[in-house]
Amino acid sequence: MTVTRSSVLLLQTLLLSARIQVSSASGHFELQILSMQNVNGQLQTGACCDGPRDVTDRRCSADECDTYFRVCLKEYQLKISSAGPCSFGTASTPVLGGNNFSLRNAKSNARARIVLPFSFAWPVS
Q1: Has the keyword Membrane been applied to this entry (predicted)?
Q2: How high does pLDDT run on average in the chain?
């Protein structure tokens, strides 16, 4: 039996293709909060965080907000909406401070870091 160069190449290709494994990828999305300013001490809706507005100057003055952050990763949206599922994960921080704070020192940084691991194919835009 004569072995030709093309049959050897074909055999090598078949053997190599049998060894090919499907690769998997993983990673993480990370967000680090460094500082926060909520000058008026109010919610996104415009209401005071705690208590009513001062009747003379209409400022929120009863108590500072209890500020934390929540991340919701979802697919691209033309019009951004907080409704609906977080397709790629969600995470939040504990309460980090009041209306204004800075977390630039190393001790506070760990609390202000949100890490969302993922082990799926990231969508192509």
Answers
A1: yes
A2: 81
Among 58, 78, 82, CA closest to 70: 82
pTM over 0.70: no
Residue corresponding to tokens 């929120």 = 60
Task: Look up residue 21 and give its two tokens.
Answer: 């494994």
CA-closest candidate to residue 64, choices 97, 88, 93, 87: 97
Domains and CATH numbers, the chain: 26-118 (2.60.40.3510)
Cα gap 28→56, rounded to integer Å:
48
**pLDDT single digits (tens) 50-102:** 878 888 887 887 788 999 999 998 888 888 888 888 888 899 999 999 989 98
SS (H, E, C) the chain: CCCCHHHHHHHHHHHHHHHCCCCCCCEEEEEECCEEECCCCECCCCCECECCECCCCCCECCECCCECCEEEECCCCCCCCCCCCCCCEEEECCCCECCEEECCCHHHHCCCEEEEEECCCCCCC
Rounded CA separation 18/12 (Å): 10
